[in-house]
Design brief:
GTP-binding; binds guanosine-5'-triphosphate; six-stranded mixed beta sheet; hydrolase activity; elongation factor; alpha+beta; eight-stranded antiparallel beta sheet; 14 helices; nucleotide-binding
């Protein structure tokens, strides 16, 4: 296909505004499934893949479209993840295409996620076509929403397309707009190969599959290729496109998007954003802006049942095969036994991995406090990268400690601004900028990453009723007055609960931790002191009173079902407990105790 007849695009939308429904409609209305038999074929291919347990991870599809002018076009749609943890991946996939459809629910209007993603599209120099969806609904108000798009985002929405992805109204117009309003890709056929590694995933039958966008040159089956950042060399085994099932092609040329397989062993050997070229006569200039996605949030994962340690190792190794941005190493904790110290891109990433281990591998986990990497400068001039607060050296040997800082950009409707500023202040944020864009405030803050990893995002969403959008980038390290706070339960330090805090906030955090633990740890037959300490000095203390009677005693012996319920509840509670010395601590205590209200 000549470059002039290729269009590459992504769809930007807030959750539930109709991105998937629209994508399905576009697929259905192109030549791909015009004939009934072809439609069945396509579904068959996908069913087989599903039966074989292949996850169709690539939400990428190549469509053939005959436009109203009679010309044949190739349309490539790339899906993008929507969350801030994966902002880097989004920005890469945006750079693999030239345009975006901005889908806005015309009954709702512009919302938080729309903004963060549309700014990524603008950054990538996309041509943007606004699409007002759900016009079949009575509450639809296209004029209001178009005006809002112009005010808030600042792009022309006068020729926004009015669509119902549900009924099919406006789909033809959308396809025509893709052809006529989005630019064709640029690229040089005769230049040395330059392709972008857009995404990669593990397929149990094919091994690692790599999604590529060819910038210049041509890639064929059998080619010897080189990844410019990692330096790894491979032979291309298979090359093809998604329609949406995998279909082999002879080669991919400039402007095209497709996949390759090349006997790559693990996903971690492929770096999103890397440049792929030929081993011989390759290009010297890699695509700009490559940065490896590195884990920034660390926590310990331990099996509740220590007999499941090997199962946990197995689960983690399998998950890591398919997720290059997740790191792990073995860890031993005095309190929790054997487990793993794992690194994640952010809190959502952490939660996704933890949930998958619990659900897919059926292993109950204790998750320790998320932490960032601190630089600990010792008095003897050496520097330690501290991944785990439990490993903090004796303070008398420490010269100073540095922590990672971020630049956070928050967009929020005016009415919630006060709460957002307070939240940032509470988290030791320094305001850098405050501006207004079409009825919305944009606050830019310099914040310590460790104040953000616990529950900042949750808090932000809750104080703004979901209307804030948040994005951040790491800025580097800065020295501050940081100390390790230990938590002692029944006079024993629980290493998994120790954390790094700012000295000025230590008392407050210590008190809140002790109060929470007092509520979370059930009463025992004896009194349990819960203390927070810095070095040897206790800074906060609570006491869990001793249990005097059987829990069912207060049911006056009468109601048997109630009694049973209470006992069942106790048993269920027990299951997730972990013993520390003589004290049972429930699993949820490790995360809950750290949340700041
Ligand atoms: P996520 O996948 O959760 O991000 O959502 P999405 O943006 O892909 O939205 P999806 O396509 O799943 O649509 C969300 C809901 O809106 C679904 O219940 C759709 O059936 C419905 N929907 C999508 N388009 C239309 C439309 O044009 N009209 C009406 N009435 N409903 C629609």
């Amino acid at each position: 296909t000549p470059l002039s007849h290729i269009r590459n695009f992504s769809i930007v939308a807030h959750i539930d505004h109709g991105k998937s429904t629209l994508a399905d409609r576009l697929i259905q209305s192109t030549d791909l499934v015009v004939r009934r038999d072809m439609k069945e074929q396509m579904l068959d291919a996908m069913d087989i893949e599903r039966e074989r347990g292949i996850t169709i991870k690539a939400n990428t599809v190549r469509l053939d479209y005959t436009a109203e002018n009679g010309e044949q076009y190739v349309l490539n749609l790339i899906d993008t993840p929507g969350h801030v943890d994966f902002a880097y991946e989004v920005s890469r996939s945006m750079r693999a295409v030239e345009g975006s459809l901005l889908v806005v629910d015309s009954t709702q209007g512009v919302e938080a996620q729309t903004l963060a993603n549309v700014y990524q599209a603008i950054d990538a120099n996309h041509e943007i076509v606004p699409v007002l969806n759900k016009i079949d609904l009575p509450a639809s108000d296209c004029d209001r929403v178009a005006e809002q798009i112009e005010d808030v985002i600042g792009i022309d929405a006068s020729d926004a397309i009015r669509v119902s992805a549900k009924t099919g109204v406006g789909i033809k117009e959308t396809l025509e707009a893709i052809v006529h309003r989005l630019p064709a890709p640029r690229g040089v056929e005769d230049a040395p190969l330059k392709a972008m590694l857009v995404d990669s995933w593990y397929d149990s039958y094919l091994g690692v599959v790599v999604l590529v966008r060819i910038m210049d040159g041509r890639m064929k089956k059998g080619d010897q290729i080189r990844m410019m950042q990692t330096g790894a060399r491979y032979g291309v085994d298979r090359i093809g496109v998604f329609r949406p099932a995998m279909e082999n092609v002879d080669s991919l040329g400039p402007g095209e998007i497709g996949f390759i397989t090349a006997s790559i062993k693990q996903v971690r050997d492929t770096k999103v954003g890397d440049t792929i070229t030929h081993e011989k006569k390759g290009t010297d200039t890699a695509l700009p802006g490559f940065k490896p996605s590195v884990p920034v949030v660390f926590c310990g994962l331990f099996p509740v049942d220590s007999a499941q340690f090997e199962d946990l190792r197995d689960a983690i190794e399998k998950l890591a095969l398919n997720d290059a941005s997740f790191s792990y190493e073995m860890e031993t904790s005095a309190a929790l036994g054997f487990g793993f110290r794992c690194g994640f891109l952010g809190l959502l990433h952490l939660e996704v991995i933890r949930d998958r281990i619990e659900r897919e591998y059926d292993i109950e986990l204790i998750t320790t406090a998320p932490s960032v990497i601190y630089h600990v400068h010792m008095k003897d001039g050496t520097k330690i990268d501290l991944h785990n607060p439990a490993d903090m050296p004796d303070p008398s040997n420490v010269d100073f400690v540095e922590e990672p800082r971020i630049k956070a950009t928050i967009l929020v409707p005016d009415e919630f601004l006060g709460d957002v500023l307070k939240l940032c202040q509470d988290r030791r944020g320094l305001q850098e900028d405050l501006t207004y864009v079409g009825g919305r405030a944009m606050a830019v803050y310099d914040l310590p990453l460790n104040e953000v990893v616990f529950d900042f995002y949750d808090r932000l969403k809750s104080v703004t009723k979901g209307y804030a959008s948040f994005d951040y980038q790491l800025m580097g390290y800065r020295q501050d007055n940081l100390v390790k706070m230990s938590i002692l339960v029944n006079d024993e330090p629980v290493d998994a609960l120790s954390m790094m805090v700012h000295r000025d906030r230590a008392e407050m955090r210590g008190r809140s931790m002790c109060e929470k633990l007092k509520d979370l740890i059930p009463r025992h037959m004896f009194k349990i002191p819960v203390q927070a300490a810095i070095g040897g000095k206790v800074i906060a203390r609570e006491t869990i009173a001793a249990l005097r009677k059987d829990v069912t005693a207060k049911c006056y012996g009468g109601d048997a079902t109630r009694k049973r319920k209470l006992l069942d509840k106790q048993k269920a509670g027990k299951k997730k407990m972990r013993q520390f010395g003589k004290v049972d601590i429930p699993q949820e205590a490790f995360i809950s105790a750290l949340k700041m209200d």
